[in-house]
Amino acid sequence: MKKTKFSAIDILIVIFLVVVIIFGFIKVGDFDLKDFDFLNLSEAKKTATVRFSVLSTYVDEGTGDMVSVGDELSINYLEKTTATVKKVSETQHVENIFNPYQGKYIEQEIEDKFDLMIELECTVDDADTAFLNDEVAIRVGEGVYLHGKGFTIFGWIVTVDEVD
Amino acid sequence: MKIDENGKVNGKISIIDIFAIAIVLVAVIGISLRFVTLQIKEAKEGKRPVTLSYVVEIEGVRIYTVEALEKRGDVIDIDQKKVLGKVVDVESNNQKIEHFLNDGTIVDSEIPDKYVARVTILSDAVESNKGYYLKNDSELSVGANISLATKYVNSSGRVISIKKVADGVEKENKDK
Questions:
Q1: Among A47, A96, B53, B73, fewest CB within 10 Å belongs to which?
Q2: What gap in Å lies between CA A17 and CA A31, rounded to an integer?
Q3: What is the complex's ipTM, to 2 decimals?
Q4: What whole-number distance in Å separates Cα of residue A158 and Cα of residue B51?
């Protein structure tokens, strides 16, 4: 086979194209270089166990019956992002309505509508900026979908505490 | 300039290589100009580092949000993952709203289970002739609605005051 010689310019062009393609994949493909850290050379992550509550308001009666203590639910439909149910409580939904005759707010229970509070526990990366369960930040005020077998419940994270 | 049957200009360098080098040079020059121009623009606008203390008012939140804010911590930009400052103080009251009564009078009523929190944040920022800018290059101005996220909470509110905390100089903007 004839030996092929490469010019210096050809080599530079190839190196440039390889660098552009790699950075392009990282930027566009949203890859994390840590995914290629097969030897785990990066610093060990600090982990923690957190217990958090998700409040879902104005739900139909029986929604809470679909969730049981011990269930493992996925968060935001992400297979790797799961949490274990520790407590489920359902209370009647109450609206505060202003009464212009009395000049104050009056509590009124709404028939057939309930507030569901689900307490969950999971292991997270204890980063400086967030408690991270894989890609999901566990923070008060975050809206999350809790997905179990045959159901999905949307709610807001209302409490986050580290478990000793 | 002659191109021979092998595609080489004057028999020495391939025309394809010339095009490729031209593309690389244009890209390098373009990227350099993009950042050099930005630096020159910043220099011209006279941005100078300052420390700001600003207050964000967050309305209509549950007690859970207030309790999470009271844990304080660093204020972060969630998208850019930058630390913008730190929460130094949190004050909260019951949320009140004005209502008209049937007799035509107006009454200030407390909304049950709703609170308003005023969060004081200390932040390293830059001041230019046009205004104040946080580390994520967003402008900070009284009246603006901004997001407020810490490790423990994600919320948003309105900036109600900005105070420059600098050596011997204090200038206060307040929302009246």
A1: A47
A2: 19
A3: 0.72
A4: 32
Residues B157, B148: Cα–Cα separation, whole Å: 7
Alpha-carbon radius of gyration of chain A: 25
Is there a contact between B154 and A103 if contact means CB atoms under 8 Å apart?
no
Closest residue in B to A162 (Cα) is B152
Distance CA A156, CA A22 (A): 38
Q: What's the rounded Cα separation, in Å, for the pair A139 and B153?
A: 5
Res. B176 pLDDT band, cuts 50 70 90: very low
Residue with tokens 């007799």: B103
Residue type, B119: V
- The sign of the dihedral angle between the CA atoms of A147, A151, A157, A160 is negative
Cβ of B111 within 8 Å of Cβ of A96? The answer is yes
pLDDT exceeds 70 at position B12 = yes
Q: How confident is the model at residue A19 (pLDDT cuts 50, 70, 90)?
A: confident
Strands B139-140 and B145-149: unpaired
The beta strand positions in B38-104, using DSSP E, are 48-61, 73-77, 82-100
Q: Is the dihedral of CA B146, B148, B154, B155 positive or negative?
A: negative
CA-to-CA dists, residue B146 to A60, A77, B115, B116, B173, angstroms: 34, 29, 18, 15, 17
Size of interface A-B (CB pairs under 8 A): 74
Q: What's the longest Cα–Cα distance across chain A?
A: 99
Detail the DSSP E strand segments found in chain A. 47-60, 72-75, 78-99, 104-126, 131-133, 136-137, 143-148, 151-162
